[in-house]
């Protein structure tokens, strides 16, 4: 997570094309003074625009959504205070940029031009393609001047980082290497439970459910009225398709990032061109459906884990709101959010299966804890020799991945004896001997170690610098959060 945190704190700028795939934040308590309407904050002499805030919010939303395998909801984002995280990030960036201005650092037009022409996304066969550049920005609804202003900030921030770059000393590298490549000689033993060692009965399950009712809720659901619009039957000749492809080819890429040829993309191009032609009629149908002049095709109930319908729009819609046409399975669909059913406590019968599973896990964990502690009192195990944090081997019957998890626990703790519960068993261990530094291994990873030292020092410097700058520059926030 540390690398992810550094990415968020330092490098999220509006230059990241991240509007697609995330809803925009609702404006909550916002100062609507006409002089401030275009900004969410002013830091020193720099303002943070509404557009910057929305773009950074989209970037953060996508970042956390990816960490959660695409399951982040707008409600969860609100609960974690995502808008406040974004605001804090942008204010910190603005503090640093004010300081960069004060000490005379500048991002020139030539700096921006060089960054642009060396961005692979905007290149064709390794050469900057101006038409492709404008086409991509247009597709993502980003004004070129806004994008280039964002690049200017990113470049200025990089220059400030370089200005304060703290080269790791040999002693610091040795200290970090010792932490990374310390080796422990371990004695280990696996403690398991017998099949019937932990049992459940109805009274215990019911008592557990009664105590933890708030953990067992129904899913939030949405009843939708859908107007499914039939696809037009128009056919396109190859010349028409090729002309459309030439304008939109940046949208047709392989998983490895390479552009598709026309033949590879032809089927999808035909669908996309049809959808473009059908858009006007879909908007006409949307207006008619909204006025009640067209009946719904079907009614459907979906939940927050749905993967077909546009949850990012549905989750923030009001009851009876009609959404503009969306594309589902290559056809336009108009959605009316008829009812929203919020989570409610499950009945005992509905929750019994989940409550039984959770209670059993708790009881097993408690029983394993007890047996592991008893085992530690007079511990004898198998000597597995010296291991390091990055050793790749199976330990006590665990997979290599789970063994790596166990080793991380061992090296993250300072106790000589301990245990870690993994995969339904407790791995008890004792450190028999230590080697402080494997110099041969350290030499192999000197670049990685130096980078880690640099990141730690840079993070500490940034944190202290931002605290100091917050007292030097006036911070006015117009957006007060939800």
Automatic annotation (TrEMBL):
GO terms for cellular component: plasma membrane. Residues 237-353 form the PpiC domain. It is a single-pass type II membrane protein. This is Peptidyl-prolyl cis-trans isomerase. Belongs to the PpiD chaperone family. Coiled coil: none annotated. It comes from Sulfurospirillum multivorans (strain DM 12446 / JCM 15788 / NBRC 109480). Its main location: membrane. InterPro entries: PPIase_PpiC (IPR000297), PpiD_chaperone (IPR052029), Trigger_fact/SurA_dom_sf (IPR027304). It is found in: Cell membrane. One of its GO terms (molecular function) is peptidyl-prolyl cis-trans isomerase activity. Keywords: Cell membrane, Chaperone, Isomerase, Membrane, Transmembrane, Transmembrane helix. The chain crosses the membrane at residues 7-30.
